[in-house]
Amino acid sequence: MLEANWREGRTAAGLVYGYTCPDAAKYPDQFFWDSCFHALAWSRLDPHRAMRELRSLAATQQPSGMIGHTTFWQGPARLSRAFTYNLLHPRAFQTATIQPPLLGWVWAEVAERSGDASFAEEGRAAVQRFHEFLDRERADADGLIGILQPDETGLDATPAYDAPLGWRSHPKVGFLALQAFNRRRGYAYRRVVADGGFHATDVLVNTAWILGWEGLARLGQPGAAARAEQATMSLVQRLYDPKAGIFFAEGSTGERLRVSTWAGLAPLAIDRLPADIGHRIANEHLLNPQCLWLDFPVPSTAACEPTFVPGSDRYLWIERYWRGPTWLFSTWFILRGLLRLGYERESAHLADRTLALIRQSGFREYFNSNTGEGMGARNFAVSTIAVECAAIVERGPDVRQSVA
What is the chain's mean pLDDT, rounded? Predict the structure, then answer.
């Protein structure tokens, strides 16, 4: 699967690239957090290919330190996408928005598995510049970072943002108005906020941000471990709901967006998350068979939410993603947390059900969380993260190593 989706070449400007496209027909370009998961899967099979994947991401880094959501190595975005992608102009090389900033953690993991100290140092420099950009352009005083649009979370049509966005939620026609508002401001977060535009503090994005700092610490960046610890404290203080026992996103006016999605479980992956909070999330939410512990866990939206749809959900003719089906992006975050907290039996069950999805339906983009039916792209490379999930369950909780 990974080999079939591999693309490599050289641009007219002389940049050499090699990356795994999520799907040859539907998603032929390089996507930021998809590439992070591709690299994790590759690192179990061919660490050198994993290193090339991440080097291609770093090669797209702009002078500001920004690395965008999507890079168009083989030419401009297709006409069908040019008006719906977050582009400053139709022939842009890269989109102007972010995805969950997991790069630091993944780079440290690939460097450890490859045993290449020079690769670790290379990554430390690139990731530090990326984090400096996010600190400068996106961070609040408490160290958490904001988003401009739900698609920056990677969970495009998540119901978590239905209430504050209303008619502008993805993929309703108003979403184009939201994009136009942000495009006129160059997708500059602080300009959008100053002009009263939508913004939010997302749980998944900040979980990836914290994991990125944990990775930078392993890569030898001074002060990175302290930043990870401080951001974890801020995440708990700001986004954890002690009454509900789960994390919720925060809207533009500081309101708590009380919709139970898998993103509220993502902090389980953070090494410094207090154990009592982790156990509450696991016992009261994740392992609840009425909400998240379904036949093929973990659904993108809890089954106890009124917005839950386990299979295909369309608005007019457009698919609305992340409103109930299972995506394997989420499995990796949750497995790490379960193992860290000692839920070995539950971890094995989750890995087994994940592999059952692949055996039953192949490497599909997402799956019906009740029946396991595959949907979306038919050759979706991120679903190879099942290899990584099986490996971490077999090995048990790892002790992360410094790779500086």
Answer: 95
